[in-house]
Amino acid sequence: METSGLIWWVAAGALIVAELFTGTFYLLMIALGMIAGGVAHVSGALPHVQMGAAAVIALIAVAALRRSRFGSWKRRDASRDAAVNLDIGATLEVDQWRDGRARAMYRGAQWDVELAPGEIEGARYYRITALDGNRLIVAAKR
After folding, report:
1. Residues of the chain with CATH 2.40.50.140
2. Which among 26, 41, 44, 119 counts the fewest CB atoms within 10 Å?
């Protein structure tokens, strides 16, 4: 059975377009395998060699991506991630503490404030280190 070489290029193009909608790089790696199959077809290889080349190149590319920094995402705690919560790192003023808790004005509203573990109540200005629901977890600003 003779395969048309056009199918390799159409499959690679479809994977690249699908990649634009997913936002991962894995479909691009599989598209590289399809391109390898197309190159094998152009060079005159038999269909089983074309499929083997596509599979091997796709597997190698996926494995390489998985080992790279782009393929292994580590889940971060959103409550402490400044890229997620823009309040982290901001400074606020706390007038009065009661057992490690207080109420403070921040961004035009009253917030519940709690000291981070190991912090003391002696400072006046604090830096937000995390958000726990509607509570700001703070540390003394140095």
Report:
1. 78-140
2. 44
CB atoms within 10 A of CB 15: 20
Percent of the chain with pLDDT over 90: 56
Q: Are 23 and 35 in contact (CB under 8 A)?
A: no
Listed in sequence order, the DSSP H helices in 1-142 are: 6-22, 26-42, 47-67
Class of domain 78-140: mainly beta
Integer Cα distance of 59 and 99 in angstroms: 58
48: its two tokens: 């089983």
Q: What is the pLDDT of residue 123?
A: 85
pLDDT at 20 over 50: yes
